[in-house]
Amino acid sequence: MRAVCFDGFSARPVLRDVPEPAPSARGVVVRVQATGLCRSDVHGWLGHDDGITLPHVPGHELVGIIEEVGDDVHRFAVGDRVTTPFVCACGHCPECASGNGQVCRNQTQPGFTHWGSFAELVALHDADTNLIAVPATLDAGAAALLGCRFATSYRGLVHQARLEGGESLVVVGCGGVGLSAVMIGTALGARVVAVDIDDDALARADRFGAAVTVNSRGLSREEVLAAVRAAVPDGIDVSVDALGREETAAVGILSLRPRGRHVQIGLFPSDPVLPMGAVIGRELSVLGSHGMPAQDYPELLALVAEDRLRPQDLIERRITLDEVPDALVAMAGDRSAGGVTVIDLGP
Question: Based on the domain organization, do 211 and 97 belong to the same domain?
């Protein structure tokens, strides 16, 4: 099969022929229809994930058709159209037993713990626990984005922060994850304030429902916070840092009213220093969101089915496998165009 591979961290990826995967006993092999290009893939390529062994095929947001099934798979069959969370749970550990497969202690992650979906075929493990049936009518790109960006944002806002209609939400960083959070917050009836340094990103946030946008380029922290407070004078109920920088996390935390909830989705390159004095003094909650277990996807898919949430609207470019090496390198250098890119591989 054809796949995008890299032989060394930061070494230019190449498209080449590699052996096809075989299903594990509890796993499947999926023929990929579409897969998202995500900044997490860049982190893996740059060597920020110690679970990756070389050579490697990245890619973790996907939708496709099951081509082979292992002997111990009972809920899915060849020909089923499926997606999966990027965190694949074992289904047996204490975390899985409590319904929290997104932090499974035995988790596998396509594109990280094993070869991923920047390929014509991808192996997925513990299929009965992790696969989610996808309607034939759902756009392939939209279905792929449910595996990471939308699932992580949805869990962070709904299951972690318990965001409700009528509350206020500030989203700091309007890339793919941040815009997913803007769309979900809007669908839930929150008043959304979007913060970014790029006018095009803020225009997208406005298009997807943000009530207020703040361009923070060249502004001090206090100036950004003043702009957010002007939009919501009583303070923000829920904040999201979708970028993963000390400054963006601090803006999210410090914008909160007393007892507010901060959700950290953006990955930090190293452990940050955060304004813990405000966390203590205002009794703020700082919450993480690391994907969403498969059993919680029906409520997210219901929003999509009701047309209240349209992941496909986030897609601005659809590229082929041949174009992935250039796109990955461009994203690592922050030279990629804004918006979300999806890799199309077939019908």
Answer: no
